[in-house]
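During the no-cost extension, the postdoctoral fellow (Dr. R.K.) reprocessed legacy sequence entries with the updated structure-token encoder. One reprocessed record is reproduced below for audit purposes.
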Amino acid sequence: MGTCRHVDLLLIRHGLTQWNQDKRYLGHTDQGLLHSELPILDGLKSELKLRKFDHIFTSDLKRCLETFHYFDFQQEPILDHRLREMIFGDWEGKTYTELKDMQTYRNWLDNWELAPVPNGESAPIFKARIDSFFQELFHDIDTQKETQKILIITHGGVIRYTVSKYVASSSFWNVSITHGQGLQISFEKKEGEWRCSSFSEVLSQEKEK
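Re-encoded structure tokens follow.
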């Protein structure tokens, strides 16, 4: 069996929760999806029915698991806590309006990698756990078939960081990802390293309207 040389990685942001709708910071608080907002997933659900995946990974938080089950896949996911959203500490459940006058919050918006979240997760720790997941992922698929298709259901911050790390033209805050939308990064292995070969958006309900 040959070494894997190509990976299509589809990153999907979970559906909408109450705090998402209220524009509150939602990290490890384990909220489920709003049933009234499940139709925002329908466009992507139709698209995914046309695809087959070698592996499906998901954050172990309820909003990602409920998104997975709504898509009605005929295979089991692999749950991984490293795919959780950032821990927002003192800002958990707060809105921009409630935080905007705090200097610590303004500092974080200006440079999230250096400014700490009070009683939350630092950027180095957040990035390290996500990096650990992808290092393990690429290591484990190295000896599989030539092309692999991987689906990951996770959170906005995880997707922003992943895209900013692997797609040269992207930075953390300019990565746009709505609930129920997917972003695909294709990788090729060249000179022993996995490198992004293409990046694209995947259909979401909002894109259809």
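Residues 205-209 have pLDDT under 50 and may be disordered. Residues 6-89+123-208 form a domain with the Rossmann fold fold (CATH 3.40.50.1240). The remaining legacy entries will be reprocessed before the final report is submitted.
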